[in-house]
């Protein structure tokens, strides 16, 4: 009995946590500390905070992987959720390991906008596209993140003659098309952008660089 109790503790999943980008939400965990734990299988449940019953996630029931997609199960983005995971090995089941509370609207990481750059001889036109959520309209198009947040775009210009870190903020606001004037011909300019949520005081990472020579 003692051995199975030890095994039970040593295969218990560690570090159960939600990761979420633009409401694409997964539950992650690490295997228990026993060396055998790499052969364990995992079972995932979730619930809304305040509910008494846990729901099984059927696609993540007896799986060898250490990640489970809960995007669909956490689509009520204002609600707080919990996830929990248990492991089984050699007929022994661990106790459940609980995540901390996760509220999608508050905690999802918002991605950068998609950036397209068109240049004329002395100006650059920057087109911005908000990141998409995984959720769809009835007609099937994906709902963008501007639906859920008051998003601002921050556009930075990098003059390639200068240091990479020398990014100048040239625009902050809601426009999807921005024109940057009075630039020097023959100079290589790069544009990066971020999304910014004033209400949460949070910025995305930088978009990938779009460069052009006038």
TrEMBL record:
Family matches, as InterPro entries: FN3_dom, FN3_sf, Ig-like_fold, Interferon/interleukin_rcp_dom, Type-II_Cytokine-TF_Rcpt
Broad class of where this protein is predominantly found: secreted
Molecular function GO labels: cytokine receptor activity
Cellular component aspect of the GO annotation: extracellular region; plasma membrane
SUPFAM superfamilies, per the entry: Fibronectin type III
Keyword Secreted: yes
PROSITE patterns linked to this entry: FN3
Keyword terms: Disulfide bond, Receptor, Repeat, Secreted, Signal
Task of the protein: Receptor for IL22. Binds to IL22, prevents interaction with the functional IL-22R complex and blocks the activity of IL22 (in vitro). May play an important role as an IL22 antagonist in the regulation of inflammatory responses.
Name this polypeptide is given: Interleukin-22 receptor subunit alpha-2
């Amino acid at each position: 009995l003692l051995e199975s109790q030890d095994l039970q503790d040593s295969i218990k999943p560690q570090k159960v946590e939600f990761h979420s980008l633009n409401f694409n939400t997964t539950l992650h965990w690490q295997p228990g500390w026993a060396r055998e734990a790499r052969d364990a299988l995992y079972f995932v449940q979730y619930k809304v905070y305040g509910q008494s019953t846990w729901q099984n996630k059927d696609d993540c029931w007896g799986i060898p992987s250490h990640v489970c997609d809960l995007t669909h199960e956490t689509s009520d983005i204002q609600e707080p959720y919990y996830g929990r995971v248990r492991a089984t090995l050699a007929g022994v089941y661990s106790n459940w390991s609980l995540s901390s509370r996760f509220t999608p609207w508050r905690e999802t990481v918002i991605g950068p906008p998609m950036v397209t750059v068109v240049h004329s001889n002395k100006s650059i036109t920057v087109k911005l596209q908000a990141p998409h959520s995984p959720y769809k309209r009835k007609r099937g198009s994906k709902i963008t993140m501007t639906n859920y947040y008051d998003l601002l775009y921050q556009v930075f210009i990098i003059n390639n003659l200068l240091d990479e870190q020398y990014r100048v903020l040239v625009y902050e606001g809601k426009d999807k098309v921005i024109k940057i004037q009075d630039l020097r011909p023959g100079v290589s300019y790069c544009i990066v952008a971020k999304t910014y949520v004033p209400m949460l005081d949070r910025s995305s990472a930088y978009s990938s660089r779009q460069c052009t020579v006038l």
